[in-house]
Amino acid sequence: VQLQAFGGGLVQAGGSLRLTCVASGTFVRIHDMGWYRQAPGHERELVALVLVTGRPMYADSVKDRFTISRDNAKNTVYLEMTSLEPEDTAAYYCTANLSRLDPNGRLREDGFWGQGTLVTVSS
């Protein structure tokens, strides 16, 4: 299983970016998907989650500015970021909980991380 994230870049304050993360490999089902971020010298923090039902959840710091969505047919999660602020500068990591069959044929759920994609917001 691999999560491939892309879409980061350099943008001026007030600008927008769209992050994309695609899950590939062998799995039965994708459950929750989401985005975390980690700024230099800070711990990794949750940005947004989207449940398998499509219900979104956001950190207070990004509410009304970021929108998370998913396309289950494409095994993809998106993060639309608007009104970006210098404080949003960080490496953004996608995450997903996936169900797979273990060697004994039993279903098990595991969490996976993508590689970070860097978002830099200049003032």
Structural overview:
The protein has strands at residues 2-6, 9-12, 17-24, 29-38, 45-50, 56-58, 66-71, 76-81, 90-101, 107-113, 117-122. The strands form two sheets. Strands 2, 4, 5, 6, 9, 10 and 11 form a seven-stranded mixed beta sheet that branches. The chain has a four-stranded antiparallel beta sheet with strand order 1-3-8-7, with no helix packed on it. The termini are far apart. The mean pLDDT is 96. With 123 residues, the chain is mainly beta.
Topology (elements, then pairings):
Elements: E1 2-6, E2 9-12, E3 17-24, E4 29-38, E5 45-50, E6 56-58, E7 66-71, E8 76-81, E9 90-101, E10 107-113, E11 117-122
Number of helical segments?
Answer: 0
Residues in helix, %: under 10%
Shape: elongated
SSE order, one letter for each helix or strand: EEEEEEEEEEE
Put the structure in a nutshell.
By secondary structure, the protein is mainly beta.
List keywords for this structure.
4-stranded antiparallel beta sheet; 7-stranded mixed beta sheet; 11 strands; 123 residues; mainly beta
